[in-house]
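Issue 218. Parser rejects a valid record. Input:
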Amino acid sequence: MKKVHVFNAGPCLLPQVAIDNAIEALKDFKGTGVSVISISHRTKEWEGVMDECRALWKELLNIPDDYEVVLLGGGASLQFLYVAMNLLENKAAYLETGVWAKKALKEAKGLGNAYAIASSADRNYSYIPKGYEIPADLDYFHITTNNTIYGTEIREDIDCPVPLVADMSSDIMSRPVDVSKYALIYGGAQKNVGPAGVAFAIVRKDILGKVSRYIPTMLDYRTHIDKGSMFNTPPVFSIFIMNETLKWIKSMGGVEEIHKLNLRKAETLYAEIDRNSMFIGTADKEDRSIMNVCFVMAPGKEALQDEFLAFAKERGMVGIKGHRSVGGFRASIYNACTQEDVEALVDCMKEFEDLKK
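Output the parser choked on:
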């Protein structure tokens, strides 16, 4: 079997130890003789996994005591509605930095007064807007910290005069975060912290219960906080793998050490893009993502795009084709992607350049 290097944007590459432990749990969960996908979520063995998983979230991100972590089905796209349903009373503003931010705003608009405070749509979301002012009368301000399709990222925790809500689907656990600056952080697991099928929400409890609308039981964060994320049957297998992934992050030295590895990977790949005469990056350099590296063929080389994709595939590169809406290339270098993977892609790019000179 040839060596492959996985750069899929999601579902993501997971640490091998998490996969191996999941395989064992499929056969026998914690010595119960029952598969993890058949175990009752009301057993002490499963409750132990839930408790450990939430504790790891709190430990790895230094989450303050007045926050709760909830694990839910539905993915981040359902969280778009959760956010507005639970927090929007009078007015909310969104920073429109890509497709997912736009979709989040759409859900809020369906429930009340929500608008884009700034947008980078004028240049196909290739930068993060700056210089905007956040009104003090907002119920909340929403940002999408990493934009997977366009390769931009907000890599600092901004100061915000109103409750700050962040979709961190694709960069959570990739860098240290000052959780205390946010009222709510949410995302889908399938980039850095597990497989598809479960979403996370880190909620400061004092922001809840302030809207006048009726909130359906399943869309009320308080329902899931009160029941320890087990109001209904949770997505047990996805949560099990999430727990194993968080244990791996801890074993690697935690988020701080993971961040150092991620910076090195990103610097290696961006340096080659900037050096190589065949390619050019698409995001403004100051806003480049360390998770999703987006690039295209250099001017005059566009006809070589499909040839490079085939060339890279032959050398084991998986998932580098850009999103269908933008084309080009995208290498997603999430936590479990290694420096070896990145260097293999760099070597491939160098080899292609030499071939076409």
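Fixed in the parser; the record now loads. Residues 254-275 form the longest helix (22 residues).
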